[in-house]
Amino acid sequence: MELENLKLEIADLVATVTLDRPPVNALGRVIREEMIRVFDALHDREDVRAVVLTGSGTIFCAGADIKERSLMTGEPGEHGKLNRLVREVFYSVMECSKPVIAAVNGPALGAGFVLALCCDILLAADGAIFAMPEVDMGLAGGVKFLQRHLTPSKARRLLLTGQRIPAAELYRLGVLEECVPGDQLLATATAIAREIASKSPLATQMLKQSFNTVETLTLRDGYRVEQEMAVKLGQSEDAREAKRAFLEKRKPVFTGR
To answer: Are the C-beta atoms of residues 7 and 31 closer than 8 Å to each other?
Structure first.
């Protein structure tokens, strides 16, 4: 797969996707198209069971490419086409069948912040900062994504003021799973990804699907969906292998079947 603005590495069932568009990894048309292509491919690849998403250099992602947007002519359909591309990038991460771990190595601003929030597990370097600065440009966006992770008051303050919040504060608020020194970030994220990759891929993929499915359901309906998924998992070869391994006092060898 030829990529211009991304790097993709796969090892030990873990894919590492790196935003690589200097100087600030801004999200323009090409990198968005590449992200959709990469995450759609990872969705189906059997040699990948978990994904780490990070940025090159000292910035995770500075958000949308404002210079590119300034070149828009306003012709009919132009904004609709852009909006479709923008949202599909986020959906490609959220709907990827493999759990995605964000390793936020530096500032995550605007769409970059949202991109991190689309991941399943969030880690950040202790020097990283997060912000939604759209309001400073006379713009707005990201409400739904912030509401999933933050209290109403904190989400409103971030969106209405453009306040910059350090990684340590997001960790205190429970948004980040870990806040670690920058030189330990990728190793920490990869270790978590490898731990996930050691589990039954059927189970981890169904768990991710469950999180996405039950979010808007009632407790009763959501639990029913989970029960139906559990029945399917119980009939899998992976589940039978786990039982055999338990009785034989060894680690199971999962095949995703």
So the answer is: no
State residue 67's pLDDT score. Answer: 79
> In degrees rounded to 5, what are phi and psi of residue 17?
-105, 120
Looking at per-residue pLDDT, the higher value among 84 and 245 belongs to 84
CATH code for position 137: 3.90.226.10
| Structure tokens given for 174 | 């429970």
Do residues 56 and 173 both lie within one domain?
A: yes
Residues 58 and 161 reside in one and the same domain: yes
- Which has the higher per-residue pLDDT, 162 or 229? 162
* Amino acid making up residue 185: L
Q: What global pTM score does this model have?
A: 0.93
- What is the percent of the chain where pLDDT is above 90? 73
Structure tokens belonging to residue 15: 């894919």
Q: Is 233 helix (H, G, I), strand (E, B) or coil?
A: helix
Please compute the mean of the pLDDT values over residues 115-125 and round it to a whole number: 98
Total of domains in the chain? 2
Q: How many CA atoms lie within 13 A of 148 on its CB side?
A: 16
Q: Which domain holds residue 241?
A: 201-247
